[in-house]
Amino acid sequence: MSGDTRHGVGVSPGTAVGPVVQVAPPVRPPADEPAPADAGAALAHVLEALEAVAVDLDARVAAADEHAAPILKATAMIARDKGLAKAAGKHLGAGLGPAHAIEAAVADYAAQFEALGGYFAERVADLRDVGDRAIAAVLGVPAPGVPPLSGPSVIVAVDLAPAETATLDRARVVGIVTAAGGRTSHTAILAAQMGIPAVVQLHGATDIPAGTTVAVDGDAGAVTLDPDLDLLEAQRVRRERRAAALAAVSGPGATRDGHAVALLANIGGVDDAVAAGAQDVEGVGLFRTEFLYLSAAALPSVDEQAEIYRKVLEPFGDRRVVVRTLDAGADKPLAFADLGEEENPALGRRGLRLCQAKPELIDSQLAALAQAARETGADVRVMAPMVATAEEAAWFASRVAAAGLPKAGVMIEVPAAALRSRHVLAEVDFGSLGTNDLAQYTMAADRMEGELSDLLDPWQPAVLDVVAAACSGGAETGKPVGVCGESAGDPLLALVLAGLGVSSLSMAPTKVPAVRFALSRHSLEECRALAGVAREARSAADAREAVRAAASEELAAIL
Amino acid sequence: MSQRTVTIASSVGLHARPAALFVEAAQETGLDVEIGRAGEEAVDATSILGVMALGAKHGEEVILTAEGDGADAALESLVALLSRDLDAEEG
């Protein structure tokens, strides 16, 4: 009998076993930190802490790969920087304690970098990382972030910062467990992208002692402490069976009886595009373009944008690339198009609404995409986020046509657009269900609120009803409707979506093989029956269980 | 005091990697080297944060100054460094 099994939310499939490495959160300077009695001694203390940070980073340079090494080396230089030490000394002289002096010195430079924007603003994260480490060193607490790993490890944290997730040692991190986060949190999306099994929302995760062996089940959302051999053997058998099953199918997605359901990748930048382009996918169903704009101080020129788009389009040759136009707003503010604070950013002037207020944003983006499409000959299709009405869809379609791009679509993520899809889709060429936001708006539950994970479960029957409404509008107008939310990557839910009439599924590329396998084992008629089963259910959990029970045994055996 | 004017060749400006290479080279000279724009206060060229905060963009002209023995030779090598597209050179 295995030890303690705890349940969270599985967000990246697969199983893994390894010792726990706890990731310490950054520590803020204590509010009651006393002013230094001796400024000279305090400065020596600060310099010692900064040097310790630099030495630690030096050691990591040696172990890092060619991509990470220059970043770590530059970060070590920041820790040894004379200017930073001088600024800290000035704050110590003004009466701040060592930890506060480091924080203030970092803030001085961070403000300058942020004002410069672009590449400079991106480096603020490295600077803050140095500051957080030095603060931990002067306070004598563990350094924040992922420590250097000596072997296969399961990373456990409250939540991982984007920079931490991006720089994970993929050869050594076999599993990720977080206490916070949600289905669509940053950690969840990146873990799936990297193919690392992950469980989020695991209560008490940070209390698991470092070094404890745990088995992580990213499908069931379970974490077992000190697993016994039977459990490990069962997981190993499932892993092998799964690998064999998934390797047996390839190529375009289709049901057993040959009904095509295109399998596409979600990407968020040039690196993702290069990685996904090499995979067995039929193109891109969601290219998030925000990365181009969020850190820029000014709207990038059309040529600058087109250059990046070209790099994203090239890896896909003649495969389709569906581009979501800029989805910014009060929660993801742009330095050059800020409409001010809003009470409810999720319900405010974001997505297409922001672009209607500032048409130059969308016009320059569409011009750049048209230029990149001409130069690469790629199959580019653009779609607008946060469309609620047919008028908005028509407005967007006219901008797209004016830019000379062949196909315009809309994201269906506002229930209004789903319910009125026959009118909304009549204005455009296609629709794409963003099920993460669609669940947020259907259930009136904030996506960023991890505690509301259950309400945001894409299996919620009400969300499936709204998806069905969108699909019926698609059928009526003859316009294809795809799904580009994380729900497309759940093999069981993918069957339900296909049964509801969805014609393409876009997800993290690592999730494609299991979805392809699931489709290949069911006919379209069976998918429709499974959709009926799911919509008959009273709750999200009932819907999932009923579909799992009714799906083919071959599929159930690998989940 | 020796002085040189040079145009930043790095396509992304003098940010992380190019800045690190430049600062490292400036430190190796063992001299007091400064970098700045004409008419503005110069910053310490051996401080990575100072150099990054300068925010010198691609195509911008900067002025390097140094004092001490070998200042001219040191500045020549730094000018040569800034005249290359450091970000395009991988590895």
Structure description:
The complex is a heterodimer of chains A (559) and B (91). Chain A contains 24 helices and 16 strands. By secondary structure, chain A is of the alpha/beta class. Chain A folds into three domains: 5-24 and 146-243, Phosphohistidine domain (Glucose Oxidase, domain 1), CATH 3.50.30; 39-139, PtsI, HPr-binding domain (Enzyme I, Chain A, domain 2); 249-556, Phosphoenolpyruvate-binding domains (TIM Barrel, Alpha-Beta Barrel). Chain A has an eight-stranded mixed sheet with strand order 1-8-7-3-4-5-6-2. An eight-stranded parallel barrel of chain A has the order 9-10-11-12-13-14-15-16, surrounded by six helices. Chain A is globular. Chain B has one domain (2-88): HPr-like (Histidine-containing Protein, Chain: A, 2-Layer Sandwich), CATH 3.30.1340. Chain B is 36% helix and 22% strand. Chain B has helices at residues 16-29, 48-54, 71-82; strands spanning 2-7, 32-36, 43-44, 61-67. A four-stranded antiparallel sheet of chain B has the order 1-4-2-3, covered by helices on one side. In chain B, α1 runs antiparallel to α3 (71-82). Classes of the chains: A alpha/beta (559), B alpha+beta (91). The interface between A and B is medium-sized, with 20 and 20 residues.
Describe the structure in brief.
Chain A has 559 residues and is of the alpha/beta class. Chain A has 24 helices and 16 strands. Chain A has helices at 39-63, 68-79, 82-93, 98-116, 118-122, 124-139, 162-166, 186-194, 229-247, 270-277, 291-294, 302-313, 352-357, 359-376, 390-403, 415-419, 421-426, 435-443, 461-477, 491-500, 512-520, 524-536, 540-550, 553-556, and strands at 5-7, 9-12, 15-22, 153-157, 173-178, 198-200, 213-217, 222-225, 262-267, 283-288, 320-324, 379-384, 407-412, 430-433, 481-483, 504-507.
